[in-house]
Write a sequence for this structure.
């Protein structure tokens, strides 16, 4: 089954404790991206990657890191999480068509930072 | 910078009513436009898209037309069903096609 998987699905952590949220896709998509969803703000793009070893900042990259060492994986790293990073996070992968990407989203990771 | 504005919700409709969710955008150049749908507890799914002016995207009875003159991409459906209850997001990709901007989402509830 074609899918984007994220782990963990739920995470409660404390301020300053480094964490990684994993994202993996089995559709051989070149494009992958991370978003955060907050009430009243919709989805905001954190980072995206157009291919292995190619990443770029989205609209809200501060406090986050990513890496793309393999095509199928795109982990999101929070080196020193803070309470304002409490949010619902979505990973997506996509294929290029008509000058843009059609994206497939994972099920989401709910992160709480206390 | 680029941005998307969509009508605030929540929207509550009776089954078989006509649906319109307004979406306008600000962008440099020629963005592509999208509607995504999010069912409770799930990730977003692409509903439809349009990549150039005057294109009409359509899927599952939903339609939206890319209007460059009014910078709009309003979502419409002639007859909604209870199963259409979800949150709908308007989005654009910038002129490179690589960076995406989403609206705040509109919650739709359809009652029998």
């Amino acid at each position: 089954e074609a899918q984007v998987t994220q782990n963990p699905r739920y995470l409660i952590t404390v301020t300053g404790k480094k964490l990684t949220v994993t994202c993996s896709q089995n559709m051989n998509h070149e494009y992958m991206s991370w978003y955060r969803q907050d009430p009243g703000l919709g989805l905001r793009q954190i980072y995206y990657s157009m291919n292995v070893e190619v990443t770029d900042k989205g609209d809200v990259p501060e406090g986050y890191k990513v890496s793309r060492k393999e095509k199928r994986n795109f982990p999101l790293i929070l080196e020193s999480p803070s309470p304002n990073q409490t949010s619902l996070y979505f990973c997506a992968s996509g294929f290029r068509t008509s000058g843009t990407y059609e994206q497939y989203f994972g099920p989401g990771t709910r992160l709480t930072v206390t | 910078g680029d941005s998307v504005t969509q009508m605030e919700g929540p929207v509550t409709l009776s089954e078989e009513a006509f649906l319109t969710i307004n979406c306008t955008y600000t962008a440099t150049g020629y963005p592509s436009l999208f509607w995504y749908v999010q069912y409770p507890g799930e990730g977003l799914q692409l509903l439809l898209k349009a990549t150039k002016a005057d294109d009409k995207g359509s899927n599952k009875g939903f339609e939206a037309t890319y209007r460059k003159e009014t910078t709009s991409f309003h979502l419409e459906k002639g007859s909604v069903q209870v199963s259409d209850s979800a949150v709908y997001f308007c989005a654009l990709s910038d002129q490179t096609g690589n960076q995406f901007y989403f609206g705040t989402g509109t919650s739709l509830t359809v009652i029998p």
Summary: The two ends of chain B are 41 Å apart (CA to CA). Chain B has a mean pLDDT of 95. The longest strand of chain B covers residues 86-93. The interface with chain A takes residues 4, 32, 36, 41-46, 49, 51, 89, 91, 93, 97-105 of chain B (CB under 8 Å).
